[in-house]
Amino acid sequence: MKLQDYSSVLQHILEKTNTKTDILSRKDQVDTIDDNKNIKLLKNELWTRQVKMEVELIIIRKSQMVEEIILLDKIQKYQIKKQKVQKELETNNGQA
Q1: Per-residue pLDDT, 61
Q2: Dist. CA 72–CA 77, nearest whole Å
Q3: In contact, 61 and 69? CB cutoff 8 Å
Q4: How far apart are CA 48 and CA 55, in angstroms?
Q5: Helices then strands (H, E): number in the chain?
Q6: Cα(58)–Cα(52) distance, rounded to whole angstroms?
Q7: How far apart are CA 93 and CA 96, in angstroms?
Q8: Rounded CA gap, 26 and 32, in Å?
Q9: Under 8 Å CB-to-CB from 62, ≥6 apart: which residues?
Q10: What pLDDT is stored for residue 15 in this prediction?
Q11: How many other CB atoms are found less than 10 A from the CB of residue 80?
Q12: In this structure, is the dihedral angle defined by the CA atoms of residues 23, 24, 30 and 35, taken in order, positive or negative?
C-alpha cells in the first residue's frame, strides 16, 4: 500500500548479469568453512601492546609540544625585553 505513493518500475535482471545479488541469494549453497583457513589473527596482547605504545607516543609528543610552547614564550619575552633595551639605548644616545 505504501508503495503506491511512488512511481516505480520493476525490471527483471538475469542471474548471470546480476552476480552480487545472485551470490547473496545462494549463500547457503556456498562452502565458507575453509574461507579463512589461511588467515592468521594476531593475539590480543599484541594489539594491546601496540595501542599502549601509540598512547605513550601521543603523551610524549604532547609533553614535547608543551615544552616547545614554554620555550617559544620565553623567546618571545626575551625579544620584547631586547626591543625595550634597544629603544632605551637609542633614547639615551639621542639625549647625549
Answers
A1: 93
A2: 9
A3: no
A4: 10
A5: 2, 0
A6: 10
A7: 5
A8: 12
A9: none
A10: 67
A11: 10
A12: positive
Q: Whole-angstrom Cα distance, residue 72 to residue 64?
A: 12
Report residue 90 as a C-alpha cell. Answer: 637609542
pTM: 0.42
Q: Which residues contact 15 (CB under 8 A, 6 or more apart)?
A: 22
Q: How far apart are the first and last CA of the chain?
A: 100
pLDDT tens digits, residue range 8-18? 777 777 766 76
CA distance 42 to 93: 74
Largest CA distance in the chain: 102
Angle at 48 between CA 45 and CA 52, to 5 degrees: 135
Mean per-residue pLDDT pooled into runs of 10, the chain (96 residues): 71 72 65 72 80 92 94 96 93 76
What residues contact 23, with CB distance under 8 A and at least 6 apart? 30
